Amino acid sequence: MRALCLTAAGGPDHLAVMDVAPPVLRAPTDVRIGVRAAALNHLDLWVADGAPGVAVPAFPHVVGTDGAGVVLETGSAVTHVRPGDRVVINPGVSCGGCEPCRTGDEVFCRQFGVLGEHRPGTAVEELVLPGRNVLPMTGEWSWPEAAAFPLSTLTAWRMLTTRARLVAGEQVLIWGIGGGAAVAALQVARHLGARVAVTSSADAKLDRARALGAEFGVNHRGTDDVPGSVKRHFGSGVHVIVDSVGAPTWPRSLKALRPGGRLVTCGATGGPFVELDIRRLFWFQWSLLGSTMGTSREFAEVVVLGNAGLLRPPVDSVYPLAEAARAYRRLAGGEQFGKLVLEVTT
């Protein structure tokens, strides 16, 4: 069967469509899926580049950190899906047996890993996963929408609900609108009833964000005073900031945060090392929160909202597997608004 594989670290030039052995069920709780589409995230770029701290098990390595497809076979213990069901995939895989897994905190499992990084990914014709990692799709979904949905939406949901505890009427600033997690955070924040400001280096992306419910946008390439712009609009600093850029934006994020505010991050696309004046941290009683992926409970929550049509990712563009390197380069260039999707099978 066909799969998109990384043959060596060093970027998308090392991607190739290859034949790999078909997977088999290994446990009664497993599900075999025929993958229809896979979607890209920044993690895919880091895997391809061989970024520090990212180590794939072996080459060639099947890539892809998001996906959706049709159930082909289930183990004897699986009851919530059956062959023929259309499903979305939770890319975060845990052991299922440790205390965090048993208590519903799978993200703290010491064996927790992400498809496409710690184990073979979704850009493959067939995939075997634990049954707990798939949930049925209902309602009107396109395959690109479904593939683009899980990782970014789940990540944004946990960031804003479980970690930042955002409530209706609060104000949120989201850096770098256009990427999958940032757009998902905008949609989640609006669903929760928050008022949202966004930043981008492209006015066209700010316009797209306004159409999705952002009430204010700042071109951070046109001004260094993002905090001042945000404070003038809202009349104060914001309650919550979603900053997954890191080093270039961190100082301005803290200036835009009101006393008692919360900054939440799930990444460091602009650089991981930041400075912090601890005196300001305790004086203003800020909360600085990290977040990664989400639990099975949170996955079920976002799939309910997705099936109801309340949370759906915008899809920037769709590529065949053979043109995956183009998708990677578009993602690396930050040109997209929404998700980049690979068509695996038709």
How big a fraction of the residues is strand? Answer: 25-35%
Give the biggest sheet.
Answer: 7 strands, mixed
Low-confidence stretches: none
| CATH structural fold name of the largest domain | Quinone Oxidoreductase, Chain A, domain 1
Mean pLDDT: 96
User: What is the number of independent domains?
Assistant: 2
- DSSP summary: helix tally: 11
Q: For this structure, what is the CATH class of the largest domain?
A: Alpha Beta
Which CATH architecture of the largest domain is right?
Answer: Alpha-Beta Complex
Bin the helical content: 25-40%
Structure description:
The protein has eleven helices and 18 strands. It has helices spanning 42-49, 99-102, 143-148, 150-163, 180-191, 203-211, 226-234, 250-256, 278-283, 296-307, 324-332, and strands at residues 2-6, 15-19, 30-39, 61-62, 66-74, 86-89, 92-93, 113-114, 126-130, 134-136, 171-174, 195-200, 216-219, 238-242, 257-265, 287-290, 315-320, 339-343. The strands form four sheets. Strands 3, 5, 6, 9, 10, 17 and 18 form a seven-stranded mixed beta sheet that branches. A six-stranded parallel beta sheet has the order 13-12-11-14-15-16, sandwiched between helices. Helix 4 packs across helix 5 (180-191) and helix 4 packs across helix 10. It is globular and about 55 Å long. 48% of the residues are buried. The model has no long low-confidence stretch (mean pLDDT 96).
